[in-house]
Amino acid sequence: MIMEETELCFPQLFNNSCSRPKRTYYETMIIYILLSSISLLTSSLNLLVIISISHFRQLHSPTNLLLLSLAVSDFLIGLLMFFQIVLINGCWFLGDIACVIYQYLAYIITTASVATMVMISIDRFVAICHPLHYNTKITQKKVKICVSLCWTWPTLFQSLNLMENFKQPGMYNSCLGECVIVINYIAGMADLILSFVVPITIIVVLYLRIFVVAVSHIRTKHSHTAGLTLHGSVNVKKSEIKVAGSLGVVVVVFLICVLPYFCVTLTGQDTLLNASSSAFVICLFYFNSCLNPIVYAFFYSWFRKSVKVILTLRILQRNSCDINML
Fold first, then answer.
1. Residue 185: how many CB atoms within 10 A of its CB?
2. CATH number of domain containing 255
3. Which of 76, 203, 215, 237 is the most exposed place for a label (fewest CB within 10 A)?
4. Model-level pTM?
């Protein structure tokens, strides 16, 4: 009777096996198909960004180097989603060591993604608010150093965080089929502040400043052309909406995707990350990586042009790296 009411991860190990949530066949298939599609789309879109920026010489700019770092992290997140798909069913079958490695890589990649978004916001802030100093303040060398720090810092920090978990993988699992890691409370709070509070604050403040300056420039331009034509006034309004919309999408989409995960963290689950119980918020967090190439890269005409070159296989032609993309 118990076996009929409860589904186990390992039915042959009744006394030690974890139970899994009961779902119908159709519910399970819908979940798997949806998450697999998101994972594939995330990897594909970001791979297009990676190929575009890496291959075409005209795109080797400081800003695009940041977009490349973001695309790499988001591409890896797309691959990591396949492991999350395994956990959706409430059971981890890949072993304790693989569980710790998965959590370790997930932290590094997602943190690097958020850190790169901060760098992108700083880059856009300097470009729009201090355009005359952009070429001296934002250089290839400085950007490469920042990108290296975006990846080095979370690697070192999480290595210290998960040291005990690496020494004794699965020591905090209550049953077989569980993927649980324990993080020190102080380290968890430091992670929350450095990986979420500070980056979110910087991004919001800088984009608000960018919005104010951009609208101010549009209105200044409008004041010089005021009274010429009614058509000019309409164009200015459309431009203001475009500026507000593009910057709003960047901030709002990011917040919608990451806020639920960190709300779970604030409730105390940062010290006990049970992947099966927080599957939804983690997948939503990952879904932001699918949207990043759309929000960031699709605003650029060079990306649309490079995608056409890649998909039509013109990229295989000789000297294709010198094709005009701008």
1. 11
2. 1.20.1070.10
3. 237
4. 0.81
